Amino acid sequence: MSTPMLTPEQLEKFDRDGYLVLPSFVSPVETTTLLEQARSLLENFTIPESMTRFTTKDSEKDKHVGDKYFLESGSDIRFFFEEGAVSPEGKLLPTYSKSNSINKIGHGLHYLDPVYRNFTLDNPRLKTLARELGVHKDPQVLQSMIICKNPKIGGKVPIHNDSTFLYTHPEPTAVGFWFALEPCTLTNGCLWFLPGSHKLNSGRIRERFVRLPDGGTGFETLLLDEPEPVWDESKFVAEPCEEGTLVLIHGSVIHKSEANRGDQSRFIYTFHMIESPEHGAIYDEKNWLQPEPGKEGFERLFDERS
Ligand code: FE2
C-alpha cells in the first residue's frame, strides 16, 4: 500500500481551519506548463463583443454582472477584464495591454482546454488526494478559472466563501483546489483566511449568488434571521506561498485576497468540486452556473463509483 499523501495532522488541520496549504504539490515542470498555457490563452484570445468585468461582491451590492457572456461561461473558455481596464462605455482603456487587462479566464478550462483538462481530470495524484480528503464520495468538478492578478491592476477579491457561488443543499459541499502558478506574496495579493470560519452558523451558507428571474445575477439571503456578519479583519491569516503550492479550500471558509500592488503578476489556477446528486447533494437550479443543455461541464473526478 502506498504512503498516504495527507497525514492525520493535515486532515485535522483542514477540518479545524477550513483550508490546508500543501507546498510543492505541483512539480516545477507541471507548474511551468500550466503557466505557459495560461499566457498562451491570453496572447491568442480576441476581445469579445460583450466585454465583461468581474466582481464577486463589493460596496455596490448586487452589482449587475450577469450578461450572457458571463452566464454561459461554464461551457466555454471566456475572458473577463479587470474593472479598471474598461471605460464606462465598455471600451478597453489604452493604459494596459490586452493580455495584462484580464482579471480571469473561466469557467470550463477543466474539460475544454487540453492542458488543464489533463492536469485536472487525468491526474492520479489529485484523485488520490480527493479520496484521502474524504469530503466527497463521487466528486464532480464543475468550474475552473485562471486568475491573473496582473501588476498594478489586478483587483482584490472581497471577503466571501465559495459555497455562496456553488450552492448545494441540504448541505454545502463545494471544495476548492487552488494552485499557485507564481509566487503569491503580501504585495501581489496572496490568500487570506479566517481560520475556522467554515464552522460558523453550523456550516450553513448565509447567502448565495443566483440567476435573477429578470436576468442578470445577484445575492439571495438564506439565513434571514442572522444579522449580516461584520468580519474582524485583524483575525485573518495571510498565506503567502511559492509557485507549485496547492491550497485546499473548504466551501464555507471565509477568505479574501488583496489587490496586486507590486510589479510581479500572481497567476493561479483553481477548480471546484461538489458532491454528486446520487450522494444527496442537490445542485441548486437558481445557481448562477448551470450546465448548458447538451454540453459537458460537470465532470466526475473518479473513474468508478465508490
Ligand atoms: Fe474563493
Report how far the terminal alpha carbons are from each other. Answer: 18 Å
Distinct small-molecule ligands in the complex = fe (ii) ion
Average pLDDT level: 89
Report the uncertain regions: 58-66
Give the overall silhouette: globular
- Tell me roughly what share of residues is in helical segments: 10-25%
Secondary-structure element order, N to C = HEHHEEHHHEEEEEEEEEEEEE
Strand-residue fraction? 15-25%
Provide the gyration radius in Å: 18 Å
Number of strands: 16
Strand count, sense and barrel status of the largest sheet are:
8 strands, antiparallel
Output the structural class: alpha+beta
Total helical elements: 6
At a glance:
The chain is α+β, with helices and mostly antiparallel strands and 306 residues long. Helix content is 17%, strand content 23%.
Describe this structure in words.
The protein contains 6 helices and 16 strands. The protein has helices at 8-17, 28-44, 68-71, 109-112, 114-121, 124-133; strands spanning 19-22, 77-81, 102-107, 140-147, 157-160, 168-169, 175-180, 191-193, 207-211, 217-221, 237-239, 246-250, 255-257, 268-274, 282-283, 299-300. The longest helix has 17 residues, at 28-44. By secondary structure, the chain is an alpha+beta fold. The model is unreliable at 58-66 (pLDDT under 50). A hairpin with a 5-residue loop joins strand 9 (207-211) and strand 10. The two termini are 18 Å apart. Strands 1, 2, 3, 4, 7, 12, 14 and 16 form an 8-stranded antiparallel sheet that branches. The protein has a 4-stranded antiparallel sheet with strand order 5-13-8-11, with no helix packed on it. It has a two-stranded antiparallel sheet with strand order 6-15. It binds fe (ii) ion (FE2).
